[in-house]
Specification:
There is one protein chain. The chain is an all-alpha fold. The protein has one domain. The protein is about 75% helix and about 0% strand. Helix 2 packs antiparallel against helix 3 and helix 4 crosses helix 5.
Length: about 170
């Protein structure tokens, strides 16, 4: 029952953003991010819990962590790739905001992804590395939230043009 309520809660949260009708917060883009965050967060907490209680991280948790990071990375990369398109679109503008205005935030976010992935890969061999998974995921997800809110194209909002024209 708790799992079902959790899924409903995530879906309701997604719909809050989808209802704004902004391209960057469309259904599949937002759902992918929220589901990815839920998976990455769940595996990070489970890995940390197992490390604290048993002293190691099991192979199935490491694999789950890696698969969830890969899923989340694909979703997030798909939001950056439109920046390379020739034709102008809201997706292109959001991608460009991430690559230029939010370059530092995006770089640290992807570095946190990498730390969590490497720690998950080797946590079964070197349990101490498992302690890096949760902090890296927390840092990365907090930065992802900053990107989520700052890279959206805000129509008819003051300050948008001045932020983009600087680049």
């Amino acid at each position: 029952m708790a799992f079902f309520l959790g899924l409903v809660s995530v879906f309701c949260s997604v719909m809050v953003y989808v209802d704004t009708k902004r391209e960057f917060w469309s259904m599949w883009k937002t759902l992918g991010r929220f589901v990815g965050s839920s998976l990455v967060g769940a595996f990070a907490v489970l890995s940390f819990s197992e490390l604290v209680s048993v002293g190691t991280v099991s192979a199935w948790l490491s694999v789950g962590m890696l698969v969830s990071i890969l899923f989340k990375a694909v979703v997030e990369a798909s939001l950056i790739l439109p920046a390379r398109e020739d034709a102008w679109s809201f997706s292109k503008k959001s991608g460009m905001i991430q690559l230029y205005s939010l370059r530092k935030t995006l770089s640290i976010r992807w570095a946190a992804f990498a730390v969590a992935a490497v720690a998950a890969m080797f946590a079964t061999l070197v349990p101490a590395l498992g302690a890096l998974i949760l902090p890296a995921v927390i840092l990365g997800e907090l930065l992802e939230r900053c990107i989520f809110f700052q890279a959206v194209v805000t129509l008819k909002m003051p300050g948008e043009l001045s932020r983009i024209q600087a680049h």
